[in-house]
Design brief:
Helix 1 (11-20) packs parallel to helix 7 (225-249), helix 2 runs parallel beside helix 5 and helix 6 packs across helix 7. The longest helix has 25 residues, at 225-249. The chain has 7 helices and 9 strands. It has a single domain, classed as 3-Layer(aba) Sandwich (Rossmann fold), CATH 3.40.50.1580. It has 258 residues and is α/β, with parallel strands linked by helices. The chain has a 5-stranded mixed beta barrel with strand order 4-8-7-5-9, surrounded by 4 helices.
Length: 258
């Protein structure tokens, strides 16, 4: 049995984990009896919030004990076997349609001084093979983490010039902290929008830490109601595709002997 930390930016993105494990998503309290169970795995869902700063802080907090030498851990402390990052991403290539499941091989940062963060090829290969064996297409991609939302087609073209195929706002930092802790990590996301998608400018709703300010987001929704409605509908539809993939992956042996 493997112990897997599953990171998501929002409750909506993390909801499939709790549903698959049989927990009521409306119950926001800490699981009373430790990790959730799914097949051969124990799962600890971590909702880190939007933005790279929130993601980094939450990953450091969650994975701190994983970096403690085994001989120094409490006898009750479990070894973390793997880290899985899930959620939505934006497509930077017209070859990636909406609702396509993708697995990262590497993740870049918009900070040119930071090196690429590789994902575990072992875990990633197992995930892709498991999905393909059940008829679910999963493409290998290079991701990039941006502090801002890629709203305009020009923004997406600029990010694509780095060699990335998709963009998100959290993966790089979580992968970097997992690497520091010596943990194999993978990223499984779903493409929620394409380079030609018309999106509301939610950058106007981000605070200084790159997280979403609910009151500002409401203002953006009121000023761009049609685009916001399409965004929310598209995100919900995309997550239904990711939920099907996670239903196969989370109970599987993809995280063992990594």
């Amino acid at each position: 049995m493997s112990l897997v930390y599953v990171f998501a930016a929002s409750k909506m993105e993390g909801q499939p984990v709790e549903q698959i494990a049989g927990r009521d998503p409306k119950d926001s309290s800490t699981p009373p009896h430790g990790p959730l169970r799914s097949g051969r795995n124990e799962l600890i869902p971590v909702v880190g919030g939007w933005g790279h700063k929130n993601a980094a802080a939450k990953a450091k907090e969650a994975l701190h004990s994983a970096s403690v030498p085994a001989q120094s851990r409490s006898s009750l402390a479990r070894k973390v076997d793997a880290v899985l990052i899930i959620g939505l991403c934006g497509g930077l290539s017209s070859s990636l349609p909406q609702n396509r499941i993708v697995a990262y091989t590497d993740c870049l940062s918009t900070d040119a001084d930071k090196p690429p963060q590789p994902c575990s090829s072992t875990v990633t290969n197992k995930i892709i093979e498991a999905l393909h064996s059940h008829g679910i297409t999963c493409e290998r991609v290079v991701g990039i983490t941006s502090p801002r939302i890629a709203v305009r087609s020009e923004d997406k073209m600029a990010l694509a010039s780095s060699g990335a195929n998709v963009v998100d706002m959290e993966s790089y930092e979580i992968l970097a902290i997992a690497a520091q802790a010596g943990l194999p990590a993978a990223v499984l996301r779903v493409v929620a929008d394409t380079p030609n998608s018309k999106m509301p400018d939610l950058n106007r709703a981000l605070n200084e830490d790159g997280a979403l300010d609910d009151r500002k987001a409401l203002w953006v929704a009121l000023t761009s109601p049609i685009r916001m409605a399409r965004l929310l509908s598209g995100n919900k539809r995309a997550m239904s595709y990711l939920a099907k993939a996670l239903d196969l992956i989370l109970p599987s042996a993809c995280f063992s002997d990594t």
